[in-house]
Design a protein that fits this description.
Elements: H1 5-27, E1 39-45, E2 54-60, E3 63-69, H2 82-85, H3 88-92, E4 101-103, E5 112-114, H4 117-135, E6 140-144, H5 150-159, E7 163-165, H6 167-184, E8 201-205, H7 215-226, E9 230-234, E10 247-249, H8 256-269, H9 275-281, E11 282-283, H10 285-292, H11 297-304, H12 308-320, E12 325-327, H13 339-352, H14 402-411, E13 419-423, H15 427-430, H16 434-441, E14 446-451, H17 456-459, E15 463-466, E16 478-480, E17 486-488, H18 503-513, H19 525-535, H20 540-546, E18 548-550, E19 573-574, H21 578-582, E20 602-607, H22 621-626, E21 631-635, H23 636-642, E22 649-654, E23 663-668, E24 675-679, H24 699-702, E25 707-708, E26 715-716, E27 721-726
Parallel strand pairs: 6-7, 6-13, 8-9, 8-12, 9-10, 11-19, 13-14, 14-15, 20-24, 21-23
Antiparallel strand pairs: 1-2, 2-3, 4-5, 4-15, 16-17, 17-18, 20-27, 21-24, 22-23, 22-27, 25-26
The chain binds ligand MGD (2 copies), iron/sulfur cluster and molybdenum atom.
């Protein structure tokens, strides 16, 4: 489905009317009470993406009926995105995993013996103990995405596991967090601290809000547009957001750093930057000023294809509205392997606009604190983590490197990795180079996948554990620091239809099998939740019935009392980074041009569709009805030249000879001629995904090449080239 611009705005403005209307309804909600019409409303929070909007699920005549936004929740403001509303389809999905499975035959054959929970967990515990005995507990790793994995993480840490990684760092927002930390001394975090709703000028570097449906950001984007904010969109593809822009800059892919440097050049040479902010809080500004003097708009034009006039006009537009002017830091930023430096450049443009802790720029998130449950301490390990031996990537974070664990599994260095637990991440589709992932899997003694559908990673597992979907379980508390501090509860709305179990139950049972009972002093999850909520001074019953609790309102801008503090070594905003210089990296970002595609090839770009989440929603019958295959965007001049048109099917072949599944052409002027674009998540190869098998093409399959960011170790994936094969 295409979300037209009109529709996009409708969705967003309806939000506010909706919120006002249902405010009264919500105050009457008492979870688990059925009204005279046979309807029961249960507050919970969404899990179709990692935004985790507060929601109200409706049960009618004992069956899951619909899900809406919880009007009290500041993330949804009473309105879910199309994926969140379609969450109902997850409960009813006929492709769901139904019972624990143990592999028979070779890995990848998708042949299974159905097991009881006891059999499956005994099998896992037995293998874990063997690995521990031979190699140590560090030889087991957890790949985890999402809050649902918290309890399993706890069991594994109690067992002595230290290697815990998430794709949200090395394949998603890692470079942004590190780029901002190096500059301002702080992360951007999630939900982002971007004050989009109050901004007067917003520049989006790729961030395709409107297709990227992170709910609050899309609502706030619509609000900014309604308020007359100037929008600047920098994207090789005319995105939905580009349709809202005053300035659309169709940049040559991979050259954004050149644009950012020349924006800085204009802001400084034309004296348009926030001098007070820079004088007071800046560090190393003189060296920075010298360095960027070479990056004129005329120079950047040759790199980016954006005219000097457009560069000057957009830099001036940003300056005109400062400090209520914002260059969005992006979210999925592992693009070209020099991404920390590009993110640092974004941070520096923002620093010149003086927008840190200021309205319309970056606000300071109001912190929500809920105490942890008092567990015994985890065992300590003498070993270093395996994902970053010898501190190869000096600026990685706690979230770790998925690719680092894969590498350690392949090389057995710094020590062998023999067991993988994979919770809520479809590693085959989310990591670059599928062959490398499969080779690593084939070196394992144990691969356990915990999922809700038979996604690609489950095909390769030794044991598959079926989790109850989010609408059927309690989960950990979602604690949010945002404009207001708040926390959300997830609680069961309906029962799991088959043998599926909640993540907390799986983690606790596995701990029992491993004799780790002391780490689960609570007998029931509600005992755990109640402890945490009551020790923070809130009523658990109220939490359950409203779905949300709020912390104290706090100042979020400097004019409200937020102190301008920067947790960098200099205590200032670092225009020049000694930290980077010490490790031999450029202390001020320096431009290196990307490789060009060979003749006849196009750069492969990819992104989001409004109605799908990565590779996890294509079987959801509600969402599939809105979009059941992806298309490849090809510039129409190119399409004409090679004799293809919209609706034709083609295949893509990448630089390493990998050929995609067949995929529909979208011939359009809305993309440059040097790249093609597709939505990520389609082209499923797991046969058990009957609702999505072989529909559309997988970008992941074509991403055999990746470039590692030397600063933080993330995998830049926009570095693959494809050519077009005709389908007879
Ligand atoms: N509907 C939906 N929304 C989602 C998600 C989802 O699965 N579904 N996932 C969420 C998550 S976790 C993330 S991280 C975000 C990701 O979403 P974003 O962070 O907004 O975007 P990306 O996926 O990095 O970028 C895709 C856009 O960048 C453009 N682009 C590609 N290469 C370049 C380049 O070299 N320069 C520039 N300037 N632009 C380029 C593409 O044309 C495309 O428009 O989306 C979030 N929102
Ligand atoms: N080629 C390519 N790779 C990418 C991206 C891209 O655009 N293109 N985007 C990158 C980005 S930004 C990110 S954040 C990552 C995302 O990477 P992943 O987190 O791996 O994303 P998904 O493909 O959605 O996989 C989530 C898995 O969790 C399962 N799941 C869903 N709900 C539950 C649940 O309640 N419990 C359990 N146990 N499992 C559940 C789903 O069925 C699915 O198998 O991918 C990154 N990798
Ligand atoms: S943005 Fe959409 S899918 Fe994500 S949590 Fe919110 S409603 Fe759910
Ligand atoms: Mo992401």
């Amino acid at each position: 489905m295409k979300l037209t611009r009109r529709k996009f705005l409708e969705i967003s403005s309806a939000t506010f009317a909706g919120a006002a209307l249902s405010q009264n309804l919500i105050s009457n909600i008492k979870s688990n009470d059925t009204d005279e019409l046979g309807i029961r409303k249960v507050p919970t929070y969404c899990n179709i993406c990692f935004w985790k909007c507060g929601a109200i699920a409706y049960v009618r005549d004992g069956k899951l009926w619909k899900i809406e936004g919880n009007p009290l929740d500041p993330l949804s403001n009473g309105r879910l995105c199309p994926r969140g509303s379609g969450g109902v389809g997850m409960h009813y999905d006929p492709d769901r995993l139904k019972a624990p499975l143990i592999r028979k035959g070779n890995r990848g054959d998708e042949k299974w013996v159905v097991a009881t929970w006891d059999e499956a967990l005994n099998y896992i515990a037995d293998k874990m103990l063997k690995i521990k005995e031979t190699y140590g507990p560090e030889s087991i790793a957890l790949f985890n995405h999402g809050i649902g994995g918290n309890f399993l993480k706890h069991t594994l840490r109690a067992f002595g596991v230290i290697n815990i990684v998430a794709p949200s760092f090395a394949q998603c927002r890692g470079p942004r967090e590190i780029g901002f930390e190096l500059t301002f001394g702080d992360y951007i975090g999630s939900p982002e601290r971007t004050d989009i709703r109050n901004t007067k000028c917003l520049a989006l570097i790729g961030s395709h809000l409107g297709e990227n449906m992170h709910n609050t950001q899309v609502q706030d984007f619509a609000k900014a547009i309604e308020n007359g904010a100037s929008i600047i969109v920098v994207d090789p593809r005319f995105s939905i957001a580009a349709g809202k822009a005053k300035y659309y800059l169709p940049i040559k892919p991979g050259t954004d750093l050149a644009l950012l440097l020349s924006w800085m050049n204009v802001l400084v040479t034309e004296n348009l930057y926030d001098r007070d902010f820079v004088d007071k809080y800046g560090w190393g500004f003189e060296s920075f000023k010298n360095e960027i003097s070479a990056y004129t708009p005329e120079w950047a034009y040759i790199q980016t294809g954006i005219t000097p006039e457009q560069i000057r006009n957009t830099a001036r537009e940003l300056a005109l509205h400062k400090p209520a002017s914002l260059v969005h830091p992006g979210r999925h930023v592992n693009w070209y392997g020099n991404d920390t430096q590009r993110s640092r450049a974004i941070a520096l443009v923002n620093a010149l606009l003086g927008n840190w802790n200021r309205k319309g720029g970056f606000f300071k998130p109001a912190e929500m604190k809920i105490p942890k449950y008092p567990y015994p301490p985890y065992p300590e390990s003498q070993r270093e983590k395996a994902d970053n031996p010898d501190n190869k990537y000096p600026f990685i974070s706690e979230e770790g490197l998925t690719n680092g664990i894969r590498e350690a599994t392949l090389t057995e260095k710094p020590y062998p990795i023999k067991g993988w637990f994979v919770y809520g991440t479809n590693l085959i589709e989310s990591m670059p180079n599928q062959l490398e992932t499969i080779e690593a899997i084939n070196k394992l003694d144990l691969l356990v996948a915990i999922d809700v559908i038979p996604s690609e990673i489950t095909s390769w597992a030794d044991v598959v554990l079926p989790e109850a979907v989010y609408l059927e379980r309690f989960d950990d508390i979602s604690v949010n620091s945002f404009y207001l501090p708040f926390a959300l509860i997830r609680q069961p709305v309906v029962n799991p239809p088959n043998e599926q179990k909640p993540g907390w139950w799986i983690a606790k049972k596995l701990a029992e099998k491993l004799n780790l009972n002391e780490y689960f002093p609570w007998t029931d999850i509600e005992e755990y939740l109640k402890y945490r909520i009551e020790s923070a001074g809130y009523s658990y019953d109220e939490f359950k019935s409203k779905g949300i609790i709020f912390g104290e309102k706090q100042p979020i801008y400097d004019n409200e009392g937020v102190k301008q503090e920067f947790f960098t070594p200099s205590g200032k905003v670092e225009f020049y980074s000694n930290q980077l210089a010490e490790y031999g990296f450029d202390p001020i970002p320096r431009y290196i041009p990307p490789d060009d595609p060979p003749p006849g090839y196009f750069r492969l770009l990819f992104g989001r569709a409004p109605v799908h989440t990565f590779s996890q929603t294509q079987t959801n019958r509600i969402l599939r009805d809105m979009m059941n295959e992806n298309e490849v965007w090809i510039n129409s001049d190119i399409a004409n030249r090679i004799g293809i048109k919209s609706g034709d099917y083609i295949r893509l072949k990448n630089q390493d000879g990998i050929i995609s599944n067949k995929v529909k052409v979208k011939a359009t002027q809305k993309i440059r001629g040097d790249c093609v674009y597709m939505v990520h998540g389609f082209g499923h190869r797991s046969k058990a995904l009957s609702g999505a098998y072989m529909r559309g093409a997988s970008d992941a399959e074509l991403i055999t090449k990746y470039k590692i960011d030397p600063i933080m170790g993330g995998t830049g994936m926009n570095v693959n080239f494809v050519t077009i094969l005709m389908e007879d």
